[in-house]
TrEMBL record:
Signal peptide, first to last residue: none
Record's protein name: Glutamate dehydrogenase
InterPro entries: Aminoacid_DH-like_N_sf, Glu/Leu/Phe/Val/Trp_DH, Glu/Leu/Phe/Val/Trp_DH_C, Glu/Leu/Phe/Val/Trp_DH_dimer, Glu/Leu/Phe/Val_DH_AS, Glu_DH, Glu_Leu_Phe_Val_DH, NAD(P)-bd_dom_sf
UniProt key word Oxidoreductase: yes
Family that this chain belongs to: Belongs to the Glu/Leu/Phe/Val dehydrogenases family.
Keyword annotations from UniProtKB, A to Z: Oxidoreductase
Amino acid sequence: MQILKHVMDDVIKRNPNEPEFHQAVEEVLLSLEPVAAKHPEWVKDKIFDKIVEPERQIIFRVPWIDDKGEEHINRGFRVQFNSAIGPYKGGLRFHPSVNIGIVKFLGFEQIFKNSLTGLPIGGGKGGSDFDPKGKSDGEIKRFCQSFMLELNRHIGENTDVPAGDIGVGGREIGYLYGMYKKINNEFTGVLTGKGLGWGGSLARKEATGYGLCYFMNEALKAKGKSFKGANVVISGSGNVAIYANQKATELGAKVVAMSDSNGYIYDSNGINLSTIRKIKEVERKRISEYVKYHPNATYTEGFRGIWNVKCDVALPCATQNEIDENSAKTLIANGCYAVGEGANMPSTMDAVNLFINNKIIFGPAKAANAGGVATSALEMAQNSMRYSWTFEEVDSKLQEIMKNIYEKCSSTASEYGFEDNLVIGANIAGFIKVAEAMYAQGI
Ligand code: NDP
């Protein structure tokens, strides 16, 4: 890094102990060197220095009472990173690993992802270090209500529109929305991922997983390959993983392995998705239960082990940094020719470099998983119109959006002399729209 080195140095100095945030910024800045060389006016106006500093960071106390009457205190976060092209938009994550650095890395990525969708949405992210695992419905409800009691004053349909992420699905969005409505006495599209009967969009729940497969389908097609007949491994067994499995299977692939944070299952007949949904969505149990229903399948402890399974296409859909250098080496040695990131930043920088240098078809998260937020923006549009589109209408818009994102990433990569490097293409294409808006607005 040359022109932008001082920006990276500053980020490290001003945001100590936030390695995930540093990692996300470094990956983007490395890609933006040629843009900085081409646009000295943006360097002079400190657009690069401004874009790495959130517009606003909110940290708050979330007290709640468990079923035994005992008090607990968690920490809530909302980072409103960039509103140059639209209201802040990005999910809420409830997981014990959440801290301000994690929320900033996710919020930073969200700026470029949202820009790539072509829709008018800025970047934000939030969440809490609350652990929903093992909590009763009542405990989840009380936590969500307490969380919204503070968050509500910072959000709004034209200001900031949160959605779900890890640990925040339809149930949690329901509790959060109910509390927002009670406090503000208004029925507006302030959250996305809502239930279908109260402002939600058809195809939102499927959108990230489906969108990932639509994006990868384009990337595979460009190299004369397809999902048809491919063996696919998908990490995670949450929202993104489940619908990635469904769409990949529909497109002719066989998904042979899935996981949760404890371990992974392998089923040579192809994973039975109904069983996964029963275990994860209804019973909320561990993935190890799968072998009780399908004795031919195997369960192995340890979440990284899934990358030892031989496959043609890998779709990491669990969490950040789940594919490290060793896992990437194993995937490549086993003949994997395509990797599509459903999760946010699931590959370490070393892993990404290995994929690019080995000519693996690589779909980076901010492009490949943008279908979720794109459909959230479609939910916002339907809320504003007080109207709803059919599943087919939303799905066809999603397909079009993912195809456009692929084309934008691919053509931008070529334009800057990095043929086939979708990482660089996504970073540059996502950045330019936001930078132009920031420059024009003088902010
Ligand atoms: P869910 O909570 O529905 O599922 C998460 C899955 O990942 C679960 O199977 C979970 O296992 C596993 N997982 C979570 N944390 C870890 C960990 N530290 N180590 C190993 N496995 C883990 O979340 P989503 O499916 O919504 O999100 C998955 C990823 O996709 C995240 O990176 C998210 O940011 C990203 N994403 C999600 C979007 C969406 O629309 N939902 C949009 C764009 C990106 P367990 O059950 O054991 O916790």
